[in-house]
Amino acid sequence: MIDPDDLAAFRAAVADARPLPRTDRVQHRTPLPPPRPLQHLADEQAALHESLHGQIGLQDRLEGGDEPIYLRNGIAHSVLKDLRRGRWVLQAEIDLHGLNRDEARSALGVFLAECNRHGTRCVRVIHGKGYGSPGRDAVLRRLVRGWLMQKIEVLAYCQAKPQDGGEGAVIVLLKTQRKMANLRG
Question: pTM for this one?
Answer without folding.
Answer: 0.60
